[in-house]
C-alpha cells in the first residue's frame, strides 16, 4: 500500500468550532486548508450527530478563500465550480420538486450563495417546464426564491438584490 496513514478526525461543534483530534486543539478553516496543501488528509464529523460533513467543510474553505480574494490559485467562484462540475457533483438532486427544493435550500444555507445555476446538456421543454412549474414554486414556498420583483427596471431589481 502506498499510504497506510489514516485521515485525521476533525469534529465540528454546534458553535461552528472545529476540533483536531490528532493535535487536541481547535483549528480554523485556514488551518484545514494548510493541512490539505501539505498533503495531510482529514475527515470532518458533526460532533453531535456523528454525520460525516467533510464535503460541506471543503466547500466552506473554497468559499472563504474567495471572499478574502487570497493567494489561492487559481481562484474559483462557487458559480464556476457548479457550472463546470468540478465540485459538488455528488449532490443528488433527484426526487419530487419539494424534496429537490429542500436540498437546494440546505446547500445554499450551508455554503452561501445568491442564486442557482441549473445546467443540463439536454434542456428539453419538459425539463424546463418541470423547473418552472414544480421546482420554482417549491423554492418560493421555502422562501429562498422571490415571488415577485419590487422594481420595474431590471437594473433596479439587480441592485436591490
Q: What can you see in these coordinates?
A:
The chain is α+β, with helices and mostly antiparallel strands and 161 residues long. 44% of the residues lie in helices and 10% in strands. The protein is built from six helices and four strands, in the order βββαβααααα. The chain has helices spanning 29-37, 54-68, 78-84, 97-111, 125-142, 154-160, and strands at 8-12, 18-20, 25-27, 42-46. The protein has a four-stranded mixed beta sheet with strand order 3-2-1-4. A hairpin with a 5-residue loop joins β1 (8-12) and β2 (18-20).
- Main sheet: strand order: 3-2-1-4
Number of helices: 6
Main sheet characteristics: 4 strands, mixed
Task: Let me know the number of strands.
Answer: 4
Helix content: 40-55%
Class from secondary-structure proportions: alpha+beta
Termini, distance in Å? 52 Å
What letter string, H or E per element, gives the SSE order?
EEEHEHHHHH
* Strand-residue proportion: 5-15%
Number of discrete domains: 2
The coarse silhouette is: elongated
Name the poorly predicted regions.
Answer: 70-75
Task: Specify Rg, calculated over alpha carbons.
Answer: 19 Å
Whole-number mean pLDDT? 80
Amino acid at each position: 500500500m502506498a499510504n497506510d496513514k489514516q485521515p485525521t478526525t476533525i469534529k465540528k461543534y454546534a458553535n461552528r468550532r472545529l476540533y483536531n483530534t490528532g493535535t487536541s486543539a481547535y483549528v480554523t478553516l485556514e488551518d484545514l486548508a494548510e493541512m490539505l496543501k501539505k498533503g495531510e488528509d482529514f475527515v470532518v464529523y458533526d460532533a453531535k450527530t456523528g454525520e460525516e460533513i467533510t464535503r460541506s467543510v471543503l466547500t466552506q474553505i473554497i468559499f472563504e478563500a474567495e471572499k478574502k480574494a487570497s493567494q489561492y490559485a487559481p481562484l474559483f467562484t462557487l458559480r464556476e465550480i457548479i457550472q463546470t462540475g468540478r465540485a459538488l457533483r455528488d449532490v443528488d438532486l433527484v426526487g419530487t420538486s419539494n424534496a429537490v427544493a429542500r436540498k437546494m435550500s440546505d446547500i445554499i444555507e450551508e455554503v452561501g450563495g445568491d442564486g442557482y445555476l441549473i445546467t443540463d446538456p439536454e434542456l428539453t421543454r419538459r425539463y424546463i417546464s418541470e423547473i418552472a412549474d414544480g421546482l420554482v414554486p417549491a423554492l418560493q414556498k421555502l422562501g429562498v426564491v422571490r415571488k415577485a420583483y419590487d422594481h420595474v427596471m431590471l437594473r433596479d431589481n439587480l441592485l436591490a438584490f
